[in-house]
Amino acid sequence: MMKAARTTLLGAAVLAAAVLTGCATAPQPAPKALAVRINENPYPSTYERYPGVPTLIRNATIFDGEGGKIDRGSILFSDGRVQAVGGPDLAAPEGANVIDAGGRYVTPGIIDVHSHLGDYPSPAVESLSDGNEATGAARPEVWAEHSVWPQDPGFNRARANGGITALQILPGSANLFGGRSAILKNVPARTVQGMKFPGAPYGLKMACGENPKRVYGNKGGPQTRMGNIAVTRATWIKAQEYKRKWDKYEKSGGEMPARDLAMETLRGVLQGKILVHNHCYRADEMALMIDMSKEFGYKIASFQHAVEAYKIADLLRENGICAAMWADWYGFKMESYDAINENIAFVHNAGACAIVHSDDPNGIQRLNQEAAKALAAGRRAGIQISEEVAWTWLSMNPAKSLGIFAQTGSLKAGKMADVVLWNGNPFSVYTRPEKVWVDGALLFDADNPAKQPVSDFELGQPGEGDVK
Amino acid sequence: MIRALAMFGLLTAASPLAAQNVAITNARLVIGDGTQVIDGGTVLVRGGKVVAAGRNVRVPAGVETVDAQGKYVTPGLVAGFSRLGLSEVDLGAAGSDDTEMGGSVFNAAIDVSPSVNPKASTIAVSRADGVTRAIVAPTTGKSIFAGQGAIIDTGDDFSPVLKSKAFQFVELGEGGAGTAGGSRSSSFELFRNALVEARDLRGRPDGARRDDVLLTRRDAQALVAVVQGRQLLIVHVERAVDIVNVLALKKEFPALKMALVGVSEGWTVADRIAASGVWVIASALNDLPASFEMLAATQSNIGRLRAAGVKVAIGMIDDNDTRYARNQRQFAGNLVSLQKVPRASGVSWDEAFAMISARPAEAVGMGGVVGSLAPGRQGDVVVWSGDPLENDSVPETVWIDGVRQSLTNHQTRLRDRYRSLERQNVPEAYRK
To answer: What number is the ipTM of this complex?
Structure first.
């Protein structure tokens, strides 16, 4: 499936190039010039899965990531794909590496939909601070992937301690339009292209609330929430106009309209190709943003940091919008003042799509524990959610919100073998990842120092290669 | 669930804000000092203090008895390093934030006590999670000296301060270098100068001061107790060589009584710290090279320090020290989990728990007063729904100084208001 997706993308790129060349060298004048196609994927993924051996894990408690649980379960993966998930009778093909989990747990890899790894890497010094293009309130033209430093040691920590196999790198929230997100497989690579999740759609980071008004209040605005909305609407009006021009041109040809990188991103949103991930804490503001999406004809994939999602969980359900939330962050600014520990469980209970996210290079190492806290808070409030269902907050729902659920986010035959073997129940504080596979390649093994990478930055430094 | 709520209701209704004589029996009893869990234990609190705790404790007639039904009963947790109660909201709500002291003309003289708001939501939230005491430090302003911190309780009353001016807090790592003019050399010189001025002032309390005076009289006066070793000096350092340099200050100022906070690279010089005998209040899970003074950060830091004989407590400096004291127990649990990771260093459950109860108290010289259920300690007791280091456990009952506490706060009230989103006859604002 992954191969197919890559081929398609590659095909599109080749086609785009051919069209461009064709136009430039066309010998005979056409009555009406064919429209120039813009390459929509100029920084394509070069990710290739690393080799793995056919592996059968048996005698495990398996959370399949879609709410299913198998006791004494088995999972077989090879060629980068999950081949089968079943009970004790699942047979190992010849030569397969067979792991007896001895009752330990197997889950899909965790997907963090809100990370700034690479854009705000460690060490957190000014020279590497590349997460907010805070030079204009609306900067949809910037792409987070152009800031990602693949050597950020945080990627390795997230895999080793957190079982993170994929993540969305978002630009920051200083801006109303922060730019495009990058969706990455959590593998060490020399280039960001080498990490890019093949076939994943782009996301657009939008922000409402305190950050834009704080950053731009003294830089020409917006200075208020009403200013935030006004500037955002005005930008969408421009985007609609840009889209009309380009739609017409692509349909009928003629003189090519001027390209505008900012507007290209917004047009992608209006076309449904780019998914909106909207930083928004407060219930009332989320409702306003939903109305705005309807006003301009786009869809919000997720609200990020949706601290007050519990107040409008019904609205989120009705509009099919995911809420990405912390388990217990609160009070650090006014828009996080009404945080409650039951937020995630309440959103889930209302039938909406709940996601546990980190926004933090430390928190990303313990998202399983954050889910556990949220689950426990929900249960105490009388909401009975099973552990296997709670795991959907960490894999299926994040994958859906990012548009990659067809490829990853659950342990189903045919999907990418993004798999974590935990040394106990992953909702327990006493549990750690034991082995982590990305596309069937073993990229972390607690028992094997050879499977514990060291980033370039740490090489030869104090603590290099240490158990972290 | 319903039963639990009903019980909570009863407890609230019955809670007078006065010290009770109470015996908690049938407990999975954790003394909190690193000793083993005692099954079938009893803790007896009278006159606001722990009288006895153990397996064979006789409960005098007339003392209220609470059957813990085999649940964990522990001392209240101690926030090892915090800014608890100083700030309601950090960003964009200036009046509610007493951690910002950059405009103050004083530094070492500052006493954090009047800034502690016992009615702050951070206090109530921490209390509901079993945090009953906190080491509260001011934040540095214009000097490397932040001022004098306090030991507080989180009780729902207007006397939060157990001990004011409990310690002086100084930044001597990267942060201190920035404040002092840009380099570690400048911060160490500023430090030396301040202590010398304090020493000189001690010699001539009413007389004129020497030339080149940099400190205000009040700041210099405040440091007299530090230079004489009568007041603890808590030093924030992360980098290994900074730790070595700080320990060497004892040669210049032999009376100094120090504890270190942060100490991310401590494991690389663990033997020296152990030999010095100073306490470390470490950030438990720092494992990123977040700065050039934390290149060797690892989650095994505390385990290795302990193995080398260093006295260690868990604190939350730079880890949202205003409001995440409640995450100390999750952090402690993670240190336990490291015991199962090859080549990593963790700590035992008993020691991990002590690192968030008795150890922080001991680090600031209050081990005889709070942090454990040893006889004579303040009556801070928590009954937990399960293993207190686990993600799914919460306090069911909390006593501070023998006073049963309310566990209700802004968050629990919002939870109850929005439990159902069904439209009712009146708006949500009428659900109280």
So the answer is: 0.94
